[in-house]
Amino acid sequence: MDLHRLTLRAIGPFAGEHVIDFAELGRSGLFLLEGPTGSGKSTLIDAVVFALYGSLASDGSSRDRLHSHHAAPGVEPYVELVFETAAGIHRVRRSPQHQRPKARGTGTTNQNATATLVRLSSPDADAGEVIGTSTQEVGTEIARIVGLTRPQFVQTVVLPQGEFAEFLRSTGEQRRLVLQSLFGTAVYDATAKQLAEMRTAAKARTDAADARVAEALTGLREA
Questions:
Q1: Boundaries of each Rad50/SbcC-type AAA domain copy (predicted)?
Q2: What is the pLDDT, as a whole number, of residue 174?
């Protein structure tokens, strides 16, 4: 999976619109996300996870904290991510649930979360094939396209601060399921299971044949 570009506005400490070109940053093969506490490092990671799964990287984090308190009222918060997998190039855009000024009168009203998913011909394409226009549709398609659930993505791709130890402390079965999904080893497990079943069936046939031979020999001796 390749991340091409992340765009966010009114998210966390980022009041305005900011664009991160991962393709450019990754040209040397490695880049560092560095900054003092509160500068927005975790927000960028949360933005990637939110764009894909509609939730944040850490289980204990509330999506309410996504909307920037520094943004002007009426500015829609959103995250947009262009990414590429074996299923193609896609652009996902999500806006978290937030309060916006009422169209009439004073006060605010609740704006529900929105999501759209578009298949692109190239990372820089403006238009493409819309394949999801609701949070449910986008969630279903993302799971298929990425091939990982949110917990699996977080544990194998993101690993927020302090959660690497949790992955190491997880049971062998939990780690096996995560790694199996990540490296696509399910086909080997299925093959091993099929071979075991074939072995059991062959042994049953052999045992039955041995029993018939033994029965025949007994009959010959008694004749």
A1: 5-202
A2: 78
